[in-house]
Amino acid sequence: RGGGKNYAPNRGAGGGHGGRGGRTTGSAEGGATNDVMETPALPGSGGGAGYTMPPSNIPGGNGGGVVKMNVTMTVALDGVMSANGQSGGTEGGGGAGGTIFLSARRLAGSGLLRTDGGSTGLGAGGGGGGRIAVWTLYNSFTGQMSVTNGAGYSSGAPAEYSQPGTIYLGTLRA
């Protein structure tokens, strides 16, 4: 799917999901976008591993998981629901944000839905943002939704930025 690549000798690219993963300062491409915006079901892809001298593996961040809820009545969300990608090691790519799929008659509350990509360190690429899809008949939610891309880091040559993910708001039929 959208796993980050590595750039020998030492930098990992970010994983992709709703948004493309960030490229390294070398030539490793970030992971591609994947999944379906309206009905996402896949986890975020992991970031590529980095390497240091003498050779030792610096893991890339894991991709975010999947949260799927099909509720017949009301969901009142006043806390945080997240499926974020994990940050990579010093030179490991960030993991992509995962999936939140929520289907309910009504969504209420002032909480936070979040599938952000993981950030990274020296010369590596950040993880792409994940996917959030919310299907409701009535929506009185006043909270926030975040699919922010993870920050990449460059020292000299700029790493290509990862992309934010997607948010889809659908209306159920009565």
What does this structure look like?
The protein has 174 residues and is an all-beta fold. 0% of the residues lie in helices and 30% in strands. The protein contains no helices and twelve strands. Strands 5, 6, 8, 10 and 12 form a five-stranded parallel sheet that branches. A three-stranded parallel sheet has the order 7-9-11, with no helix packed on it. Strands 1-2 form a two-stranded antiparallel ribbon. A hairpin with a 3-residue loop joins strand 1 (6-7) and strand 2. The radius of gyration is 17 Å and the shape is elongated. The chain starts with 5 loop residues before the first strand and ends with a strand. The mean pLDDT is 90.
Write the layout of secondary structure elements.
Elements: E1 6-7, E2 11-12, E3 50-52, E4 56-58, E5 66-70, E6 74-76, E7 80-82, E8 99-108, E9 112-114, E10 131-139, E11 144-146, E12 166-171
Parallel strand pairs: 5-8, 6-8, 7-9, 8-10, 9-11, 10-12
Antiparallel strand pairs: 1-2, 3-4
List keywords for this structure.
five-stranded parallel sheet, three-stranded parallel sheet, 174 residues, single chain
Brief characterization of the structure:
With 174 residues, the protein is mostly beta strands.
Mean pLDDT: 90
Radius of gyration: 17 Å
- Major sheet description: 5 strands, parallel
The span between the termini is: 36 Å
Count all strands and give the number: 12
Instruction: Give the overall silhouette.
Output: elongated
Quote the beta fraction: 25-35%
Tally of individual helices = 0
Query: Fraction of residues in helices?
Result: under 10%
List the secondary-structure elements in sequence, H or E: EEEEEEEEEEEE
> Oligomeric status of the shown chains?
single chain
Low-confidence stretches: none
Please identify the structural class as seen in this structure.
Answer: mainly beta
